[in-house]
Amino acid sequence: MSYSIPPSDSKPISYGLRPSQWATKHPHKPAIIFCDGDAEPQELTWLQVDQRSNQIARLLAQHGVNSDSMVVLGLPNCPEHYLVSLAGWKLGALVLSLRPKLPERERIQLLELANGEVVVADWDNVQSPQLTLDQIKQADRFSADPLPDITAHPGKAVASGGSTGRPKLIVDPNPWASTDDTPVFDLLGIEPSMVHLVSGPLYHNAPYLFSHRGFFQGHTIILTSRFDAAQAADLIEKYKVSYTYMAPIMMSRIAKLPNIGQKNLRSMRTLIHTAAPCPHWLKHAWIDLIGGENLLELFGATEAVGICTIRGNEWLKHEGSVGQPVPGCEMRIIDANGDECAPGAVGEIFMRWTDPNRGPSYTYIGSNPAKKDDAGFSSVGDLGWADEDGYLFIADRRVDMIITGGANVYPAEVEAVLTEHSSIADVAVIGLPDEEWGKRVHAVIQIKDDTDPLTRSELETYCKARLMSYKVPKTFEFVEQLPRNSAGKLRRADLVKARS
Asked: How many Å apart are CA 147 and CA 171, to the nearest integer?
């Protein structure tokens, strides 16, 4: 059965109202299918999503939530995560999604910044008014009738540790509404009525934002409680998934499954990846799996000061690039003296939007704004270089770059080489203090299960065949598991701190 998108007169539609339109148009179409381990999948139709979010909205309103409020959401991946977000937007509230298992110190700092009207989480010792997951599930005592349409302005916020180490909130200050032809849908490869696998945690911006954009376009959301490579591959095949977001570490774990060549993943029309550099071998592997035209890399930041994109088939002509700025976005690469870099020279990446009527793309709570020059170009600290054709190539941030014996080593380059080794499941390259070199290149390696141990000599030989000598790690360390968050981002600072 095919499903058409509700008609639009190009007037922005609020994200709170949109489920009601889908419930009217296709009440029995699956909206969310929740896969929690080996349990039987839980399915919610559009009618159920609309009615339950109406009920939860009335529960939130009873606790004082309105268009001037912030709702703090600290739930794990589950259908209620979507329902509470929709309920908050139906009341015009700003929704902040936080990691459920935050360290208490960081949680206290973030809740102080948020000053939310209601916290929806299963946390202990919370001073703010709180609703638990069980209370949310019992909201069926409230009316499921429609509510007045309100556009949340703003509607979405996420948390970030930031370069200072003190948490901050990043708020999207724009009205939380879209039209069917909003350019962001093309930018993210989102088409109407796709089947959308959400394997990342909803407290991170990419899976939260992309899936709610997809929800607006009538996607059926296949939600997992946690990422599992084998399960993800099975779900893509079973449900004929056409859209998903993954961090490169997730892509790597799927690509290295022993039976991946037997899986049919060709239903995929857009696999979008961001959050970390993607090694060349991994990009080639996924191009083989789903086709280059269906692999979309996005480079940007939560602050959305600018965006570059590139499809896999274009990447084959510019290997290693994260693409060019999208229409309406400009980029400059600036050196330490404030001068624009020549093609090929590494500098700090600055971007700006060219539309003079476009408002700010973010506001911070708890931090000063990102660096901005007199011409309106902003930087969040990323380094890179552009070629003669304006294609951007990413280097590591200055804080991660290793200066060893006066030479610059970018960890991502060394990590890309090591992850290609058939026995290595994961790797992090860091700089450690060294009396002779200033910093020495140190590789922390996670070996794949059921593989023979690797020796330092084997790894040195492997690296020397692929890297300049000064980039070859001087020391190697083997661990059972690297510290990554559930979005796939490496906690590099934790590794350095524990070894310095």
From this structure: 25
